[in-house]
Amino acid sequence: MGFRSLARSFVLTAGIAAAATSPVFAQQAPAPAQSRPATPAPKPAPAQPSATPNVEQVTPGQTQPPAPGTVRSNHGAWSVVCDKPPGASTEQCALMQNVIAEDRPEVGLSVVVLKTADRKSKILRVLAPLGVLLPNGLGLNVDGKDIGRAYFVRCFADGCYAEVVLEDELLKTFRSGAQATFIVFQTPEEGIGIPVDLKGFAEGYDALP
Length: 209
What we know:
This protein is mainly beta. The chain has one domain: Invasion associated locus B (IalB) protein (Immunoglobulin-like). It contains three helices and 13 strands, in the order βαββββββββββαββα. The strands form two sheets. Strands 1, 3, 4, 5, 6, 7, 10 and 11 form an eight-stranded antiparallel β-sheet that branches. Strands 2-13-12-8-9 form a five-stranded mixed β-sheet, with no helix packed on it. Strand 12 and strand 13 form a beta hairpin. The protein is globular and about 45 Å long.
């Protein structure tokens, strides 16, 4: 099973005004491993299925996408891409990686990291395909450590996205990690783990203007 690139044009142009109230990855129970969340949840999370989900791991492959906008630099599996949203006076840049399963085209992710216009916050935005089970949210595991789940914020014609404030603890985990696995659910009991290569993340993040 291989992966091929998937570019999503909306990730650079979608607004970030809702970031301040976005949910964060919050530890759920039960989970395969109990670990502290990257940041505390602002409010109790919705109830989760009582059984530990069965996660199917898919195999990573090519992840360097032909991204929308202008590719400023490449860093391992990541690209710094800049674009000028309609009505904006300056370009917006983001660190991006896009992956999709070649034999399962309905399963893929676009992962985007960007800074807000005031440079006071950092945003992690993950676009998942339509058809995922929204109440279960998006799971995250880094190098075998369970980080928790974030919940989907909104759906558009090309998918649904979860968006969180990238707090310093989670940013540090990404910078030092080797592989993140984002987990989407098609049923309450069955999750699909999609590996995202963290090689080049730290260098790419530092290259963001």
